[in-house]
Amino acid sequence: MIHIHSPILRSSHSLAQSPRHLDPLIGFGSMAKLAVLLLLAVAASATALAHGRELPTQIKLIRGADAGALGGDSMECVYTVYIRTGSIWKAGTDANITLELAAADGNGVGISDLPSWGGLMEQGHSYFERGNLDIFSGRGPCMAKAPCRMRVASDGTGPHHGWYCNYVEVTVTGPHKGCAQRLFTVEQWLATDAPPYKLEAVVNNCAGAGAAAA
């Protein structure tokens, strides 16, 4: 795993607990922040290649009913993911968290190990702990359309398997593509001992999402 030190990323802990309303048009400040994250992701990939290591394989294509609508399996797009863990008691977890993103046609990407794929927090950071805003960014296959469906899941392992997720925010961009930003509000336990007694949460915003390209 590649750890990147950045005071910009550490400052993310000061962000508000509740997500703000997202405007479809990303402001200059958001674009500047995204540009920094993209540079960090590219730098991490370049470092791995320079040391003879393969790029992470924790991200893969998910094929829906219309597999012809996939954007291709080349790792040309960059995904930036913000995940907020709740501040309530025992909200954090030691379990492995996976993420799936899909368009209305079912095509998308799945990330099996978020920290190994693109964890950007400081060295020694414990991901998915209570009150955390964890940031991940890395390369992956391009989606032909912007994601509108999100599935986040826990494998239920570790001393404390339960996890309370506030939200997942995703930004996707690539060559000759726009910059798509999506907010998926979860506000749910992923646990077997707390309602709704599931280790997954699915947020489907595809109805009326349109066919905007990623």
Q: Explain this structure to me?
A:
This is PLAT domain-containing protein. InterPro entries: PLAT/LH2_dom, PLAT/LH2_dom_sf. It comes from Eragrostis curvula (weeping love grass). By secondary structure, the protein is α+β, with helices and mostly antiparallel strands. The chain has one domain: Lipoxygenase-1. The protein has three helices and nine strands. It has a five-stranded antiparallel beta sheet, with no helix packed on it. Residues 1-26 and 41-56 have low confidence and may be disordered.
Summarize the structure.
With 214 residues, this protein is α+β, with helices and mostly antiparallel strands. It has 3 helices and 9 strands, in the order ααββββαβββββ. The chain has a single domain (7-204), classed as PLAT/LH2 domain (Lipoxygenase-1), CATH 2.60.60.
Radius of gyration: 16 Å
Q: Which band does the percent of strand residues land in?
A: 25-35%
- Number of structurally distinct domains: 1
Overall shape:
globular
CATH architecture: Sandwich
Largest sheet: 5 strands, antiparallel
Number of strands: 9
CATH class: Mainly Beta
What is the string of helix and strand elements? HHEEEEHEEEEE
Which fold does the CATH topology refer to? Lipoxygenase-1
Cross-sheet strand order for the largest sheet = 1-4-3-6-9
> What percentage of residues falls in helices of 4 or more residues?
10-25%
Average pLDDT: 78
Span from first to last CA? Answer: 27 Å
InterPro entries: PLAT/LH2_dom (IPR001024), PLAT/LH2_dom_sf (IPR036392)
Organism: Eragrostis curvula
Domain PLAT: 77-204
Protein name: PLAT domain-containing protein
